[in-house]
Structure formats: C-alpha cells, structure tokens
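Quick one:
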Amino acid sequence: MGEKIKILFLDDEQSVLNALKRTFMDYDYTILSATSGQEALGVLEKENIQIVVSDYRMPVMNGAEFLKQVSERWPDTVRIMLSGYADIDSILSSINKGNIYKFIPKPWNCNELILTISNSIERYFLVKKNAELNTVVESINKELTVLNDQLKGLLEEKSNSLDLTDKILTLHENMFRSLPVAVCGIDLVNNELLPNPCWDDIMSKDWYISGKSIEELIMSEKLEKFIEEIK
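Output:
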C-alpha cells in the first residue's frame, strides 16, 4: 500500500484505550491514543492518520463534535464512532455532521472491530486512489482542451491557407482562359493537355486536344506536320 497504517483511538478512559491497543497488538498498525478531543486534534496535526476511532461520551468536546472537526480538516481520514447503545439517538442525530463511516457499539466484539478496521483501511485507499485518478483525469482533460484549441487554430489556419490557394488557382485559371493567344497547358497530375478557349477558336478542328494525353500528342504524326507548318 505504500503507507504505514496509523490508527488513532480517542477515549477518556485509559482502560478502554489499553483494551483497544491489545486488540491490535498482533497487527502491523501504528496505534496512537488520546484521552481528549484537543489532544487527539494535536496528534492529527503531527501525524498522518488513516483511521480515527472516537468514543461519543467525552468531556468538553464529545465524539460527534471531534469527528466533525476531523471531517472538515482531514476529510480523507476514515471516521468511526465508538459508544454505548444508550447514546445511539444522540449519535444518529449528529452522525452526518462528521461523515462517520461506521458506528461500533460498546462493548465491542473484537472480531467485528478488527473487520471494521480492515474495511476502513480498504476504504481509505480506495477513496485516495479515486481522488488520484480524478486528479489525473482533470489534468488529461485540461491537456485535451489545450490540444483541441491548438488543433482548432491549426485547422482554421489550414482552412484559410486552402482558401487562399483555391483563390490563387482560380485567378490563374481565369488568366489562362482569358489570354488572347492560343496556349496549351499541361495537367501534370492527370498527364493531360489543357488548351485555353483561344486555342479552340484559332486552331482547326484537327487540333481539338482538350483531355488528350501528352504521349498521345507527342507520338502523333500531326505534331511533326504542325511544326513544319509553323516553320
């Protein structure tokens, strides 16, 4: 997982804290404890705590008030309430304020407590991984937005360039067609001859060569005859 699991237990009775520590003595967790809400907040300010288990009945600051502060200041920390059945009504009325993950009644069943802590650890890393993925997705989305803007700009430039090229070609074609002399152009792409309108007006019908291939004209005996006539 890459993180040392640290669990903070908060209870104003030292005997309860000792019992909780014994429950997890065989597990590879770092167990921290506090006997007051203020003391527990001090621990959280110094340590990276993944799980907090707090008793409800506490002097000065009860468990609900403490977990509410934990929720606001360390939202990634999984929060668990530990208390007797007599406090259930009070706990339920304030449970959402601290975004409490689980309520464990006193006296607790050790196996159930161990399972709850295990599930809490999985939840912690799941939420953390989800947050990391969200950060990655947000970063990718920002990059895609920038790339899309750049692509849009390039496409606009390309479109403008194509428009300019098309206008230039149209101008050249108009000039070619408007020349008052017979001119024959060559389409290098299609390997064809392209005479201008004046060519068709001046030359005889035997020299209507529009659309004919260059090879067809060059290999023609008429070309030799035409050249001789020109001479």
